[in-house]
Design brief:
3 strands; mainly beta; DUF4295 domain-containing protein; DUF4295
Length: 50
């Protein structure tokens, strides 16, 4: 289950997006949030990875 929060970030001339997804821990069963800043084109690939 992934939740995508997108914030448009501007640094110099590059356009970047911050994506956040919820990941379930195998040990405890609790959920943690993983954040990453990337180009808008690579967000869907990153979210589809486990």
């Amino acid at each position: 289950m992934a939740k995508k929060t997108v914030a448009s970030l501007q640094t110099s001339s590059k356009r970047l997006t911050k994506a956040i997804k919820m990941v379930k821990s195998a040990k405890s069963g609790s959920y943690t949030f993983v954040e990453s800043v990337m180009t808008p084109e690579s967000v869907n690939d990153w979210l589809s990875k486990k």
